[in-house]
Amino acid sequence: MKLCLNGEESDFTDGLTIGELLVEQEVTTPEMVSVELNGQILKRSAIESTVLKDGDKVEFLFFAGGGS
Q1: Which CA distances in Å does 25 have to 21, 42, 46?
Q2: For residue 29, what pLDDT band results from cuts at 50, 70 and 90?
Q3: 61: helix, coil or strand?
Q4: Average pLDDT over residues 37-56
Q5: What's 11's domain CATH number?
Q6: Number of domains observed in the structure of the chain
Q7: Residue 67 lies in a domain
Q8: What is the four-CA torsion angle of 47, 52, 10, 59, rounded to 10 degrees?
Q9: What's the CA gap between 43 and 46, in Å, rounded?
Q10: Cβ–Cβ contacts within 10 Å for residue 54, how many?
Q11: What is the pLDDT of residue 68?
């Protein structure tokens, strides 16, 4: 299936969940990432159970602390 991930279209395995996608993309700190699916921020509780479909648009939003 084709997904648009962080603005770039790529091919992925059918039936992939958001959680599996995070692992496949080697996101080492998933607790520091919010996921937007088709313009909607997913609840953290939905990440493991949400199955992606062809044409979905996924954005990983990474948060970092800093400043003074």
Answers
A1: 6, 18, 18
A2: confident
A3: strand
A4: 96
A5: 3.10.20.30
A6: 1
A7: no
A8: -40
A9: 5
A10: 10
A11: 66
- Full domain range(s) for residue 53: 2-62
DSSP codes of every residue in 3-45: EEETTEEEE--TT-BHHHHHHHTT-S-GGGEEEEETTEEPPGG
What is the phi-psi region of residue 7: left when phi exceeds 0, alpha when psi lies from -120 to 50, beta otherwise? left
pTM summary value: 0.87
Residue 67: is its pLDDT beyond 70? no
Residue type, 29: T
**Furthest-apart CA atoms within the chain: distance in Å:** 44
Mean pLDDT for the stretch of residues 36-41: 97
Q: Residue 29, CB half-sphere, CA atoms under 13 Å: how many?
A: 6
